[in-house]
Specification:
The chain has 80 residues and is α+β, with helices and mostly antiparallel strands. It has one domain. It has 1 helix and 4 strands, in the order ββββα. It has one helix at residues 60-67; strands at residues 2-6, 11-15, 18-22, 25-28. The strands form 2 sheets. Strands 1-4 form a two-stranded antiparallel ribbon. A two-stranded antiparallel sheet has the order 2-3. The longest helix is centred in the last third of the chain and has 8 residues, at 60-67.
């Protein structure tokens, strides 16, 4: 994986179990082989489809930015 720039500022959200501080980065995968640990599936979607999914509150700020981003314009200095 190659990690790019931050999608947006760190989001904080208070849940019943505690506070989540979430920082999201653009990333480029070098392989399509995934070992799923925290999730049961990987799903690739277009940015326009992001708003159709249900997101946890801490995820919403990054999801909104990603939904409006032309992902072809995201740069990864290590591979571009």
């Amino acid at each position: 994986i190659i990690v790019g720039e931050k999608v947006t500022e760190t989001a904080s959200y208070e849940y019943e179990f505690g506070t989540v501080h979430l920082t999201v980065y653009y990333a480029k995968f070098l392989s399509k082989n995934f070992d799923l640990i925290a999730h049961s599936e990987v799903k690739w979607i277009d940015p326009a489809e992001v708003s159709k999914l249900t997101w946890a509150p801490a995820d919403i700020p990054a999801a909104k930015v990603i939904s409006k981003t032309n992902l072809n314009g995201v740069k990864f200095d290590a591979v571009d």
